[in-house]
């Protein structure tokens, strides 16, 4: 129960609703328990009439009154049972909502490393399945517990009042029922977890094949993926059958135990009536109804116990993530607007999970408003520099300064607000093109969106779609070409008009002619902004105020275009090669 303590704050938050729920439950049960007493009394009236103890008129009158009471009690109990669900189950839905939001907000502040070390499926499971199991504890488990306690407390008082010894005999089989249901519930839960796991394997497999359908088709491996799917489906079917087997035992077991209890009541009650220990035959009928009314709540004790155990395990998993601290912390509470002077001082960086040294003693600086181009072979550390400027990771060796302040002393929100980042692999959401561009600036007007798209040289392409800017992109923007995606991603960054713009090889899928036009537009737009362009092409770098060339995490060349082509090195070699390719 330790993990479930996390929920106490929610119980406190919704305390008034819960208290009302408890009171309503008690009232509902008290009225429900009028039924056996009234049925017993009615049978006694019939018995008295048969024995000639009362007249026909009294018989009719008393029976009618009893029936009216029965209907009244049933209606009141029904209304309050409805209200009981409306209060307690609703509280569980409120808690579920709050908990999901709490987890989601926490996921948002966690750093990239967390996402690298945990699978997306796991993150999704904890926020959906595990929260669902916890809800069962807050709602149904709590409701059935209050229900059972109230029902027992009231019923036992009524029963002892009638016959203490018959009460004892009647209740005898119930603990066995509870233990049996508990064991069965555990078995059911175990098997449903296995079914869930196999279902998630099946859906992960299907999702991957659908996402990679073009690769599957081009390699012609549809038959083998179909066979694999069939195998996974067959495994799932067998697991479902195993689960159904134990589920099918649930009700027969209950019926068996109710039958045993009924037999005991009839046999012991009959003997006691014959020996004169109980005065009325109606008491036997009353007890039979008690048995039937108490059986389900007793069975739920076992069921509720297993619900609580599952909720505890789920909350434990949720707490594991909620207690994870983000690696990147905001240390400045005040906003710290950023101008854009960026300086790296002897920065070395090792990725913590792979131990790869991505940067080795890197130093450079860019005045605000200047453009820096970074070139270098693949894996030389170019993207890492951009990630460090966005503070996706903190450096342990050397320092990064923005406007003369160590990056970790800046307000994280201000820093990221001032950056427009175009990643290497443009990610677009399954939404309209307009919303994808506006993502960088929620309050942008349609004119702003069009202007940004024009500057990114994608406006014409968008207008070619029949729905224009309202064209909805499929999962990961599959309806756009690679180059179009990159340009929409550029439009998203420039619409923000940030003081620092980071372009990570984002023109690689664009032809050189369009590249030139975009760069010209960017030149105008980024006049007073710090711009860093990572590229493999000299054409993207040649107009930059400063160019650095990286190799294996180290700066091997730096200068501007003119100075670098006059020096024998990587830049000159690349320039000559790309120039001759262009001429060909
Ligand atoms: N998130 C990461 N976790 C661990 N190692 C990484 C991560 N990102 C990059 N690396 C490693 O760090 C090194 C530098 O990578 P980086 O992405 O900065 O290179 P790059 O110059 O941008 O390459 P490319 O031109 O191919 O994009 C590489 O060896 C890479 O494998």
TrEMBL record:
One of the record's GO molecular function terms: ATP binding
Subcellular location: Cell membrane
Pfam families referenced in this protein's UniProt entry, alphabetically: ABC_membrane, ABC_tran
ABC transporter domain: residues covered: 342-577
Protein name per UniProt: ABC transporter ATP-binding protein
Record membrane topology: Multi-pass membrane protein
Keyword terms of this UniProt record: ATP-binding, Membrane, Nucleotide-binding, Transmembrane, Transmembrane helix
Record bears the keyword Nucleotide-binding: yes
């Amino acid at each position: 129960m330790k993990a479930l303590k996390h929920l106490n704050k929610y119980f406190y938050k919704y305390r008034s609703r819960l208290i009302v729920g408890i009171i309503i439950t008690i009232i509902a049960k008290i009225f429900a328990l009028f039924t056996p007493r009234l049925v017993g009394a009615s049978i006694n009236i019939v018995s008295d009439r048969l024995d000639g103890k009362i007249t026909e008129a009294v018989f009719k009158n008393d029976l009618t009154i009893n029936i009216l009471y029965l209907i009244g009690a049933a209606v009141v109990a029904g209304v309050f049972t409805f209200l009981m669900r409306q209060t307690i189950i609703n509280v569980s839905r409120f808690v579920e909502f709050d908990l999901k939001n709490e987890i989601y907000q926490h996921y948002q502040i966690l750093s990239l490393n967390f996402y690298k070390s945990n699978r997306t499926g796991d993150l999704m499971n904890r926020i959906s399945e595990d929260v669902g199991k916890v809800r069962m504890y807050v709602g149904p488990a709590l409701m059935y517990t209050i229900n059972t306690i109230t029902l027992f407390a009231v019923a036992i008082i009524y029963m002892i009042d009638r016959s203490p010894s018959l009460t004892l005999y009647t209740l005898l089989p119930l603990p066995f029922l509870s233990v049996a249901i508990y064991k069965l519930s555990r078995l059911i839960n175990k098997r449903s977890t296995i079914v869930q796991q196999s279902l998630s394997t099946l859906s992960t497999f299907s999702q991957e094949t659908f996402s990679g359908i073009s690769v599957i088709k081009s390699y012609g491996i549809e038959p083998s993926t179909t066979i694999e799917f069939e195998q996974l489906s067959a495994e799932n079917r067998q697991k479902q059958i195993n689960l159904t087997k134990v589920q099918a035992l649930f009700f027969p077991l209950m019926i068996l135990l109710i039958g045993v209890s009924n037999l005991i009541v009839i046999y012991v009650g009959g003997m006691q009536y014959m020996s004169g220990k109980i005065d009325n035959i109606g008491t036997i009928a009353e007890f039979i109804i008690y048995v039937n009314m108490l059986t389900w709540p007793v069975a739920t004790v076992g069921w509720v116990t297993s619900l609580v155990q599952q909720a505890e395990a789920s909350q434990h998993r949720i707490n594991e993530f909620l207690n994870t601290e983000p690696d990147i912390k905001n240390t400045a509470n005040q906003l710290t607007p950023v101008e854009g002077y960026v300086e790296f001082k002897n920065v070395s960086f090792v990725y913590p999970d792979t131990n790869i040294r991505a940067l080795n003693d890197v130093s450079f600086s860019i005045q605000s408003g200047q453009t820096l181009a970074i070139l270098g072979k693949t894996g030389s550390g170019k993207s890492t520099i951009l990630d460090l400027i966005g503070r996706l990771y903190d450096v342990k060796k050397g320092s990064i300064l923005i406007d003369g302040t160590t990056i970790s002393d800046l307000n994280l929100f201000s820093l990221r607000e001032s950056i427009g980042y175009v990643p290497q692999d443009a990610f677009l959401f399954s939404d309209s093109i307009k919303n994808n561009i506006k993502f960088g600036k929620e309050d942008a007007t349609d004119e702003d969106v069009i202007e940004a798209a024009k500057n990114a040289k994608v406006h014409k392409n968008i207008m070619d779609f029949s729905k224009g800017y309202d064209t909805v992109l499929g999962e990961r923007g599959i309806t756009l070409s690679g180059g179009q995606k990159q340009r929409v991603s550029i439009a998203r960054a420039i619409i923000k008009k940030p003081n620092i713009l980071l372009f990570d090889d984002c023109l690689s899928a664009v032809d050189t002619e369009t590249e030139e036009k975009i760069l010209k537009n960017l030149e105008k737009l980024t006049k007073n902004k710090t711009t860093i362009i990572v590229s493999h092409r000299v054409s993207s770098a040649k107009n930059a105020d400063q160019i650095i060339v990286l190799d294996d995490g180290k700066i091997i060349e730096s200068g501007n275009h003119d100075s670098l082509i006059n020096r024998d090195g990587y830049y000159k070699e690349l320039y000559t090669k790309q120039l001759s390719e262009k001429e060909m």
